[in-house]
Write a structure and sequence with these properties.
The chain is built from three helices and five strands.
């Protein structure tokens, strides 16, 4: 402790230990990979999600923007720490850190085809009459 001018002691607080360049590069690579998965996953939902609320499309977009902020902070830490020549940082990390987040849009249909009613199937957005799916009393005569 170092005494202050007025006699009150001042605590000496050590600076946080600087992380190694390879640790920062690994974190950058991990966050970049996660962002790539999130961008791809937003367009390919395994199930339809609501636009807003818990487990929603808006929540996914918020997660993307949070990860982008984290990635930008890591990239800045990497640069400020003088790690410029360290291998392991993906060349497109800044692209993912600054890429525009997706618009909040409804989920695409996650089923390639679905039965809509008796004898009607939707395939790729086109309604197809499927007589074999009609009940017997409604069967079409060829």
């Amino acid at each position: 402790m170092i005494p202050a001018k007025n006699g009150n002691p001042i605590a000496i607080v050590p600076f946080p230990t600087q992380r190694s360049c390879s640790d920062i590069a690994n974190d950058i690579s991990d966050v970049r990979d996660e962002l790539a998965r999130r961008f791809q996953g937003y367009g390919e939902s395994a199930q339809p999600l609501p636009l807003f609320g818990k487990f929603s499309r808006a929540g996914h977009v918020q997660q993307i923007t949070n990860k982008q902020t984290n990635l930008r902070n890591l990239l800045n830490e990497f640069n400020i720490s003088g790690c410029g020549g360290t291998p392991g940082v993906p060349g497109d990390a800044w692209h993912f850190a600054t890429r525009q987040a997706p618009a909040i849009t409804p989920s695409r249909p996650w089923v390639k085809y679905a039965t809509i009613g008796a004898g009607v199937i939707i395939v790729g957005g086109t309604a197809i009459l499927a007589p074999e799916l009609l009940p017997l009393e409604f069967a079409l005569v060829p």
